[in-house]
């Protein structure tokens, strides 16, 4: 499901927003220059958020909110935690591995949590609101990438991990022919409900040719067919790198022209924050979170004959994600 790659920390740099650049040719050294695409959010410093707001927002895919001076101290006691044992206990409860934990979570506790974050209800704290803003910027940036080549009318798009339809519905409004899927039946039901409400009248559509997306309950491994474009936002967070390589190859096999992926980037800094966050799993059962380096993702694409054409970074105080568009070599 398209759920936020949100690792929350007070240490996220203040210049938040989306930065976007075309990838350099294969034989050309990449430059460090990137061009701002959107205006950064004006969000108050983390110090104004209450402890209750932070605690209420944390689950297993989030990083505990900590002060900069606390990072070293908490890192020193990471060896005392045992997040792997907790993950195994979760898997035993639902009778399976990571996939079963993800399905169970997003059909129950996770669905209620992320439905609020993805929606427009005011019943969210400031941290959850910031995550909503970050996810919406990922969706907005994805739409800009897609429309950069021209009209989407009649273009077939697979939204792999559609969540509550935050991307599938805008795509349909643009005239795209959308096939949307999610591992969670609860998410798919909510997406269908939202689509009927928003696409019920042609007046709500940018294109008079807007058609209702086709929603289906499926995991990524079960997806088939052929599409002009495949999009998979904030889902690779559920896959370790060895499995992510195969999933990237599978998604690329479904696309004819473009593959757009977002993922939580793996750096020493973010990896440390993730490990610290596992000391504070929150009150609800949650899914395991995996970070991915951009180099690993790029190598996985190159193995199957694809190259990154555009790349960007979306950050707010409590959300960060790499966004890449790949095309056949």
Question: Topology of this structure?
Answer:
Blueprint: E1 17-22, E2 35-36, H1 51-57, H2 70-76, H3 83-94, H4 98-107, H5 109-118, H6 126-147, E3 156-160, H7 168-173, E4 177-182, H8 185-199, E5 214-217, E6 227-232, H9 241-254, E7 255-263, H10 268-277, H11 294-303, E8 306-315, E9 320-328
Parallel strand pairs: 3-4, 3-6, 4-5, 6-7
Antiparallel strand pairs: 1-2, 1-8, 7-9, 8-9
Helix pairs in contact: 3-4, 4-5, 9-11
Question: What descriptive keywords fit this protein?
Answer:
329 residues; alpha/beta; 9-stranded mixed sheet; 37% helix; globular; disordered N terminus
Short overview:
The protein has helices at residues 51-57, 70-76, 83-94, 98-107, 109-118, 126-147, 168-173, 185-199, 241-254, 268-277, 294-303, and strands spanning 17-22, 35-36, 156-160, 177-182, 214-217, 227-232, 255-263, 306-315, 320-328. The chain is α/β, with parallel strands linked by helices.
């Amino acid at each position: 499901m398209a759920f936020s790659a949100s690792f929350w920390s007070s240490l996220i740099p203040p210049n938040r927003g989306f930065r976007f650049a075309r990838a350099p040719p294969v034989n050309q050294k990449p430059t460090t220059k990137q061009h701002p695409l959107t205006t950064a959010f004006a969000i108050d410093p983390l110090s104004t958020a209450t402890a209750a707001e932070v605690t209420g927002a944390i689950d297993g895919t989030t990083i505990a909110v900590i002060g900069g001076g606390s990072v070293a101290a908490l890192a020193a006691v990471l060896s005392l935690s045992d997040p792997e044992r907790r993950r195994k206990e979760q898997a035993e409860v639902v009778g399976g591995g990571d996939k079963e934990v993800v399905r169970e979570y997003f059909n129950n506790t996770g669905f209620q949590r992320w439905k609020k974050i993805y929606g427009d209800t005011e019943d969210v704290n400031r941290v959850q609101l910031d995550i909503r803003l970050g996810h919406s910027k990922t969706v907005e940036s994805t739409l800009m990438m897609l429309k950069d080549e021209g009209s989407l009318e009649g273009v077939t798009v697979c939204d792999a991990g559609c969540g509550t339809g935050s991307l599938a519905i805008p795509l349909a409004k643009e005239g795209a022919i959308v096939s949307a899927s999610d591992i969670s039946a609860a998410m798919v039901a909510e997406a269908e409900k939202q689509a009927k409400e928003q696409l019920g009248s042609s007046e709500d559509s940018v294109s008079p040719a807007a058609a209702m997306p086709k929603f289906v309950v499926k995991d990524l491994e079960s997806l088939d067919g052929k599409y002009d474009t495949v999009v998979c936002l904030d889902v690779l967070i559920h896959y370790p790198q060895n499995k992510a390589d195969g999933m990237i190859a599978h998604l690329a096999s479904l696309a004819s022209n473009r593959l757009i992926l977002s993922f939580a980037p793996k750096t020493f800094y973010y990896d440390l924050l993730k490990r610290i966050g596992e000391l504070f799993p929150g009150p609800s059962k949650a899914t395991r979170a995996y970070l991915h380096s951009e180099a690993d993702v790029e190598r996985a694409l190159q193995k199957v004959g694809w190259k990154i054409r555009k790349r960007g970074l979306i950050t707010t105080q409590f959300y960060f994600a790499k966004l890449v568009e790949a095309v056949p070599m």
